[in-house]
Amino acid sequence: MRPLVATIDLSAITQNYAVAKRCAPGRQAFAVVKANAYGHGVREVVTALHDLADGFAVACLEEAAEVRALQGEARILLLEGCFDANEYQFAAQLGLDVVVHSEQQAQQLLAATLNRPLNVWLKLDSGMHRLGFNAAQLRDWYGCLSGAEQVAELNLISHFACADERGSEATEHQLEQFLDLLDLDFAQRSLANSAAILTIPAAHMDWLRPGIMLYGATPFADLTAKELGVRPAMSLTAQLIACRDVAVDEVVGYGGSWRAERPSRIGTVSCGYADGYPRHAPAGTPVIVGGHRVALVGRVSMDMLTVDLTDAPDAAIGDAVELWGAQLPVDEVALAAGTIGYELLSKVTARVSRRYCSH
Ligand SMILES: Cc1ncc(COP(=O)(O)O)c(C=O)c1O
Fold first, then answer.
1. How do residues 14-46 score in pLDDT, each as one tens digit?
2. CA 73-39-101 angle, 5° bins
3. Residues lining ligand 1, CB < 6 A?
4. Are residues 165 and 262 in the same domain?
């Protein structure tokens, strides 16, 4: 069997959920489990959070149906709402909470014949300019949807663009836009993603929406997961499958892009870009081999990557390699590769077997 596995510590996820809840006592929290629970396996994550989570948030109806099959009662929030008119009926059958972010969605909802009314979250575009109504439109639609037969609760939601930049003026402005609408009598309000849960108490409202923090990574460039008190859930581990010595001026990997400047020992690791390791990770990106931190060298291949073992002379074929996880925060790898932990975690591909544990 190919020695590559993503080990998911489900107790880290339940503990991280508890951290989110402790940040905002008395509030409820939708665990954001879209994109296969950020790559961690939606079924296992939802099952682990079964007795704990107040609700779950997903990106589409297909994801919602998967969660509903495991969770008969929990609230499930469809973050982008329905993509066409036919989806409302199915959403009602599944008993979902739906975002309504556009006139088209609002009109389709009002035209729908539903077997039961839906909890509706009117989305305010408070400054991100991706989805949502401006304040005036939102007030109009509040009026139109209040009391409509298709609507159970009428709620308010918005999303921050820059909550990961501490002290951001844009975030202040977004918060003000949201607060300005609170003269309307919404049943529930939701604004805070992980960054806001952790650092902006004024944004906590009624329902939190923690995503990345559940998985033990940081949304911030200047605060580590450890500093935030969350524990990494996924360790991506492989093995050293080959070792060789290369002389000065020998090159390594596709394109010969890395050249040895000293006599070097090169290790080959059973993980590549078809597993979700970023192909654009540059030489120097950290990798843990047998507990030692070494550097990636040469281009990442589809199924393998190479590391410089010159300063880890005891490393040998069969040694455990951690690409990220308990010993090496995914955020460090992401920083080296010019991306974010979110992308690395959610892009671990289906061919990587997931193993689950609880410590
Ligand atoms: C609308 C919405 N709310 C909450 C989240 C969770 O954000 P985070 O993973 O930064 O906590 C996301 C994630 O992208 C989102 O799109």
1. 999 999 999 999 999 999 999 999 999 999 999
2. 60
3. 32, 79, 159, 193-195, 209-213, 219
4. no
Write the pLDDT tens digit of every residue in 241-253.
Answer: 999 999 999 999 9
- By DSSP bridging, strand 97-100 and strand 75-78 are parallel
Tell me how crowded residue 135 is: count the other CB atoms within 10 A of its CB.
Answer: 14
Residue 241: both structure tokens together: 């499958």
Chosen domain end from 191, 217, 243: 217
How far apart are the C-alpha atoms of 130 and 160, rounded to whole Å? 11
239 and 158 in one domain? no
- Of 277, 269, 255, the C-alpha closest to 339 is 277
165 within domain boundaries = yes
- Active-site positions? 34, 254
Q: Kindly give the pairing relationship between strand 258-259 and strand 251-252.
A: antiparallel
Distance in Å, CA 254 to ligand 1 centroid: 37
Nearest CA to ligand 1 atom 8: 211
**29 located within any domain:** yes
Rounded to whole angstroms, the Cα distance separating 136 from 138 reads: 5
Annotated binding site: 130, 302
